[in-house]
Design goal:
Elements: E1 3-7, H1 13-26, E2 30-35, E3 40-43, H2 49-52, H3 55-61, E4 65-67, E5 75-77, E6 81-89, H4 96-108, E7 113-115, E8 121-123, E9 126-129, E10 131-136, E11 139-147, H5 152-158, E12 166-168, H6 181-184, H7 191-205, E13 208-211, H8 216-230, H9 233-238, E14 243-249, E15 254-261, E16 264-269, H10 273-276, H11 285-291
Parallel strand pairs: 1-2, 1-13, 3-4
Antiparallel strand pairs: 2-6, 3-5, 6-11, 7-8, 8-9, 10-11, 12-14, 14-15, 15-16
Amino acid sequence: MSTFFLHSPFRLAYENVALEHYLIHHRTENILLLYVNSPAVVIGKHQNAFAEASYEYLQQHQIPLARRISGGGAVYHDEGNINISYIHQARFIDMQLILKPLHAFIETLGLTAQITPNNDLLVNRKKVTGTAGHLYKQRSLQHATLLIDVCLEHLKESLRVERHKFTGHHVASRPSPVTNLIVELNKKFTFEELYHQLVLFLKKWFYVYNNLNLSEFEIKQIKTLAKEKFSTWNWNYAYSPPFVYSETIDSQNLTIQCTVKNGIVETCEPPSFFTKNMIGKPFQIPLIKMIK
């Protein structure tokens, strides 16, 4: 079965998450999808949003957080990152389907790449690619990031969280040293040049002969899906599995523990004037810090 190519018309992470959801649910073709997001943190479906991204940093820099439909860990996206998705008819997830072509492409640039047991790609022992997958009936999604020229400061700071303060059954990210291909290549190429080369390489790899065109109706459906689900607080934050957050207040020799379910604070121990006012409200670490 031949593969169709689609360059996403969207730049918002919410819309591209919605696009992947739409393609796996409503299309039957094998699809090679590439997209570039404006700055955003994108977390795995089963992750705790509060434990994966710095809420304060995201607010300060107006960086949205989006929850995708696949598993895996938290990543930072911006205009220096290429996202590659392969959606096809299958009853299984095989990360090699996306890792092997990306590995081969990187080596055409004169770099040595390594595929890890965690399904990452490393260049000079630093991560340039992470992967995740999702199954829906007989449709399979494998997708990956490729760091070309990402803002590493935003990447580092937006994902800086004291994860040890959160306990629960959420999937935790495994932070790794990262690098940009532009750095490893000594800026021999621009982002646009590498993107163009990648598209040509992947089209040959996946035997792409035709482009996939979205109708106006489909674009409207995807935007509606993004607005009504994938950009909402209920999906991106409240969907987080139940957890307990612990904060030690050294000045008072006190440890506060909050239980949170569906993004809402259910209990706080020990009870106090401040903690009682938090119960029944959306969880926010800045509120805890006010007590300190």
